[in-house]
Write a structure and sequence with these properties.
Blueprint: E1 18-22, H1 26-37, E2 41-46, H2 51-60, E3 63-66, H3 75-80, E4 84-87, H4 96-103, E5 108-109, H5 111-118, E6 127-132, H6 137-150, E7 155-159, H7 165-169, E8 177-181, H8 184-189, E9 197-200, H9 208-211, H10 214-222, E10 231-235, H11 239-247, E11 255-259, E12 268-272, E13 275-278, E14 290-294, H12 295-298, H13 306-320, H14 326-334, E15 344-349, E16 352-356, H15 363-370, E17 376-380, H16 390-396, E18 400-405, H17 410-420, E19 426-428, H18 437-448, E20 454-457, H19 470-483
Parallel strand pairs: 1-2, 1-4, 2-3, 4-5, 6-8, 6-9, 7-8, 9-10, 10-11, 11-12, 16-20, 17-18, 17-20, 18-19
Antiparallel strand pairs: 12-13, 13-14, 15-16
Helix pairs in contact: 6-13, 6-14, 16-17, 18-19
Length: about 475
């Protein structure tokens, strides 16, 4: 039998390899489907599983263990004695099953590890551009992909968003570039890859309950720079990201490229007045800059905020590393539109603007919204993931007209508000009925809001305590906001 460590190509002999797959979400299913195609001997372990997906696994001849029998350290997993374990990235590193695998000397991969090894299935492997950060990943990935497509490249967004990366690997026509969003969970488990370009957009406290502490979270993010071939893109406004580049072992010749919302220095992309400028990828960069786009171009995307400008500069820096011409950067920006629930204006009435930023699931993301408006009725709360919101409240208390607090962990938010913003009026929504929460939020927000104010859903917390996901939370907020005008 071929050793797991010797398997580095789609064309290697994977047949008969015993693999346990943990989880049957989007990535887990793509892992099982891929390994079945390669002829591996599989067992899938999933506490929660969709009936339709289980039926497909049956057709593929893939054995599966679900429900209570898949929890903890399943006896069937121990008996199966896999040579490899491919886990959902959400499985905690201190879980019983991961500890057992480590103690047993069983390699633990995520789908990204597998995809890297299998990337040669169709012709020349695609180049990878890897994106991580506490906030702004999805927008940056999607905008980078849009710019590359404007230049005529076959590019796809994948990884933590969009199409499962293994589906991209198996796409019959192949791709020129994969723009890969990587979460800190994926990066924690990730082995060795070598991206063409990489970026850490920003670093702030998030997922500390999963990683254990901030340093572990920060180091996981920094892994994205390892073995980068061409461009390590960092945030000039966040010195931690530049330090992560300095600490990384990269391919000789890889450059550090900064992005900024201010004027760009040498080897940076940023803004001179209302023009996005490149001083990184032009020969005359010491004393000249090339125009890539204007604020008017960027305004076609949506509400122009410092957060959006930062993402645009980062995406441009990544795209330009591939030699993409300035006109394609401009066209990609002008034709791009933000995802739903990211600083999205959902209703305007009586000079009050209602904005859905439900995707702001941590304080850093919420800060991007709070920094963008002068007078705010803030809707906040949910699952805090071990993160203290006190610094966020202290920094933006002067912008708050009032606060509406929701969520299971609302007492932690209320305590922080009492300590850091004692003069800001607060309404607590005690209902846990997701059909009713946002209607109470809307009526409470109207009690505070005045002409010119923004009612901002930027919860700084995850949503699963009261809603299906952040999209459900955002849709319900928008629905309740529009109902105030009826």
């Amino acid at each position: 039998m071929t050793r797991v460590g010797d398997l580095n190509s789609w064309h290697d002999d994977w047949s008969g390899l015993k693999v346990a797959v943990l989880g049957l979400g989007v990535s887990g299913f793509s892992v099982a489907d891929t390994l079945a195609e390669l002829g591996c001997q599989l067992t899938v372990f999933a506490e929660r599983a969709d009936t339709e997906e289980l039926d497909i696994l049956d057709v593929l001849g893939v054995r599966h263990v679900t429900g209570a029998e898949a929890s903890g350290l399943p006896t069937e997993l121990v008996a199966f004695a896999p040579a490899l374990l491919v886990t959902s990235p959400g499985v905690r590193p201190d879980s019983e099953i991961i500890n057992w695998a480590k103690e047993s000397g069983i390699p633990v991969w995520v789908d990204i590890d597998l995809a890297w090894r299998l990337r040669d299935k169709v012709g020349k492997p695609a180049e990878w551009i890897c994106v991580t950060g506490t906030n702004g990943k999805t927008t940056t990935v999607q905008l980078t992909t849009a710019i590359l497509r404007e230049a005529g490249l076959r590019a796809e967004s994948c990884g933590n968003i969009g199409v499962p990366i293994l589906d991209c690997i198996r796409e019959p026509e192949g791709y020129d570039v994969l723009v890969v969003e990587l979460s800190s969970f994926q990066l924690h488990y990730l082995g060795e890859i070598s991206p063409y370009a990489s970026v850490v957009l920003n670093i702030d406290h998030d997922h500390l309950d999963w990683h254990g502490d901030f340093d572990a979270y920060r180091l996981a993010k920094g892994k994205v720079y390892q073995n980068t071939k061409i461009a390590c893109v960092y945030n000039v406004g966040d010195s931690q990201t530049e330090q992560l580049v300095a600490d990384a072992e990269v391919v000789e010749g890889a450059r550090a490229i900064g992005f900024t919302v201010g004027a760009p220095g040498l080897s940076q992309i940023g803004f001179a007045s209302d023009i996005l400028c490149d001083r990184a990828y032009i020969e005359e960069r010491k004393d000249q800059a090339q125009e890539l786009a204007t604020l008017e171009d960027i305004a076609q995307i949506g509400v122009v905020t410092p957060h959006l400008l930062s993402n645009v500069a980062a995406a441009s820096a990544l795209a330009r590393s591939l030699g993409i011409p300035a006109e394609s950067v401009r066209a990609g920006i002008r034709n791009f539109r933000l995802d739903r629930h990211r600083i999205e204006v959902v209703f305007e009435h009586n000079e009050i603007t209602w904005i859905d930023d439900s995707k702001a699931t941590n304080p850093h993301a919420a800060a991007a919204s709070l920094a963008s408006f002068d007078s705010i009725v803030w809707v906040v709360g949910g699952l805090l993931k071990g993160v203290d919101v006190s610094p966020l409240i202290a920094k933006y208390a002067h912008r708050l007209r009032g606060v509406v607090v929701i969520g299971k962990e609302r007492e932690l938010v209320l305590e922080a508000l009492r300590a850091e913003a004692p003069n800001v009026p607060v309404i607590e929504i005690t209902s846990d009925n997701n059909e009713d929460v946002m209607h109470q939020v809307a009526s409470s927000a109207l009690a505070f809001a005045q002409a010119g104010d923004v009612v901002l859903l930027a919860p700084a917390a995850a949503s699963m305590d009261q809603f299906k996901d952040y999209a459900d939370r955002g849709f319900r907020f928008a629905q309740a906001a529009r109902a105030t005008g009826e």
